[in-house]
Each structure stands twice: as C-alpha cells, then as structure tokens.
Design brief:
- The chain contains ten helices and nine strands.
- By secondary structure, it is an alpha+beta fold.
- It has a domain of about 190 residues: Coproporphyrinogen III oxidase, aerobic (oxygen-dependent coproporphyrinogen oxidase, 3-Layer(aba) Sandwich), CATH 3.40.1500.
- The strands form two sheets. Strands 1-2-3-4-5-6-9 form a seven-stranded antiparallel β-sheet. A two-stranded antiparallel ribbon has the order 7-8.
- The chain is globular and about 60 Å long.
- The chain starts with a helix and ends in a 7-residue tail after the last helix.
- The relative contact order is 0.15.
Length: about 300
C-alpha cells in the first residue's frame, strides 16, 4: 500500500467534488485554504479546507482534506483496537458536509479515510473507514431509494454482504442515543476495515468516495427549485439542531480531530451556518414534518 497513491486520490476526489458543487451552484467560487501544522506542535501534517458559503443552492458546503502524523493514537481511534493504544500513527482523509439553502434539498455527509499505526511490538497496521449518509428535512421516497441504491452499487463488486452490513452499521452509528432518534435516513458506514487486504480495501474506499456525486447531485437537481415558505425554513433550522447535537456529542471523527490536536476550524467545517432549537418541539400529526419523523427518520429498508 502506497500512502502517496492514497494521498493523490484523496486530493483529486476533493477537487472533483468541489468543482461539481461550484458548478451546480451556478459557478459560485469556493475558498481553498491550505494549512500546515506549526513546527513544535505535537501533531504534524497539512491539509486543504475548501468551502463555499452563501451560494445560490448551498448555504455552506465544506470539504476538507487532511494528512497528519502523531506520536500516539487518540482514544477515539483505539476503542476497538486497544492493542494499538499509544502507537504513533499516520492518518489522511476527505470529509465533507453540504448544507443546502432550500429545505427540500437534504444535507449530505461523506468521509473516506485511512489510518496506519505502528505498534512497538510489530509491523504497521492500516485500516480504512468512512461512508456517506443523507439527512433530509422533508421526505421523498424516490430520493431515499436512489441514495441507498447508489450506496449498494458502490459496494456490490466487493461482496454482497457489505451493503447490508454497512447500512445497519450506519443506522447504529448515526443515531442520537440521548434522544433515541436517527439523524437521517442513513446510508453506509464502516470503520476499522481491512478484511479485503490493503489494496482491495483501498479500491473499495475509492468506489465509495466516487459514489458521492452520483448519489447526491440528482437529488439536488430535483429539489433545489422547489418553492418554500418560512414554515419549511423554520423546520429546516430546527432539524439542523439535531445535526449539531450529533456532531458534537457522538461523532468519532470530530472527537478524533480534537483529541489529536487537529485544526479546529477545519474539524468544525461541518457545522451549519444557521440553526435553531425549541423546547419539546413536536410536529403536528398529518403534516409533512410529522411524516418525516414517522416514516423517514426511522430505521427501515429502502431497497
């Protein structure tokens, strides 16, 4: 496994995704912010944060690449691999969250990453992780089916068992356990993955990364011009509050970045620009907002 090849793929993926998003937004430019960790800091490395804000379609679309090295893995990375606790590591990945302006367009999240640790008692150990998931504010059956079918098709060449496993893993992971509530309609999620061998596992990771635009762009095209009022906008901002809760309370990627001394501004690029909370809010029965909670933000099979 060649780290240079993985880095090259991730940088190309970031560029292709953000170029497509900028074009979809009518040519709205995105900021490309290259960063380096300062000499003397515990964590060493570099990255590029690319972000589009206040666009026609997207209020905030952030996509970050990072490549870091550190003297010891943080706790969030070793909870399933205790034998690697304290090992020096190298990690690189691309992570994105796109927050649309129109409430009928869902928010999407994707992450693809590689981590390699070198324990004192053995050879380097590498594994892959990531996935993509969709968080709608209003439910559309055809959008959910399309998204999950694309996830299924990305994994199919690598084993018929992968989509059911990763789909269930996604449902388990993207759950606000303190509320007993799913964050969205899910997708696929995997971590600590190397069972296909390094080369084939990396190939699978590429298939997942390359599926993002196929899964998401047709949905955006269908929904971005849907008329909406302040009612839909208020519901969108309320549901974004759940997104923030998950990212800060439960997300291992956020915890890994902060625990390892990563760049805070880049780690938190997933945060929506506007959000709201209301006390004991409950959608009225018979409304589209209630339908979202009853039929979409639940664990179910889509394909």
């Amino acid at each position: 496994m060649d780290p240079t090849q993985i880095r090259s793929y991730l940088l190309d993926l970031q560029k292709s995704i953000m170029t497509a998003i900028s074009n979809l937004d009518g040519g709205t430019p995105f900021v490309s912010d290259a960063w380096h960790k300062n000499p003397g800091e515990t964590l060493q490395g570099n990255g590029i944060t690319q972000i589009l804000e206040n666009g026609h379609v997207f209020e905030r679309a952030g996509c970050g690449f990072s490549h870091v090295r550190g003297p010891q893995l943080p706790p969030s990375a070793t909870q399933h691999r205790p034998e690697l606790a304290g090992s020096p590591f190298e990690a690189m990945g691309v992570s994105l969250v796109f927050h649309p302006r129109n409430p009928y367009v869902p928010t999407v999240h994707m992450n693809v990453r590689m981590i390699c640790a070198t324990p004192s008692s053995g050879a380097p150990v590498a594994w892959f992780g990531g996935g993509l998931d969709l968080t709608p504010y209003y439910g559309f059956e055809e959008d959910a089916v399309h998204f999950h079918q694309t996830c299924h098709d990305a994994l199919a060449p690598y084993g018929s068992d992968l989509y059911p496993r990763f789909k269930a893993w996604c449902d388990d992971y993207f759950c606000l356990k303190h509320r007993g509530e799913q964050r969205g309609i899910g997708g696929i999620f995997f971590d600590d993955f190397s069972e296909l061998g390094n080369d084939k596992s990396f190939e699978m990771l590429q298939s997942v990364g390359n599926s993002l635009l196929l899964a998401y762009l047709p949905i955006v095209e269908r929904r971005k011009d849907t008329p909406y009022s302040e009612r839909e906008r208020a519901h969108q901002l309320y549901r974004r509050g759940r997104y923030v809760e998950f990212n800060l309370v439960w997300d291992r990627g956020t915890h890994f970045g902060l625990q390892s001394g990563g760049r805070t501004e880049s780690i938190l690029l997933s945060m929506p620009p506007l959000v709201s909370w209301s006390y004991q809010h409950a959608p009225q029965e018979g409304t589209p907002e209630h339908d979202l909670m009853k039929h979409f933000i639940v664990r179910r099979e889509w394909i």
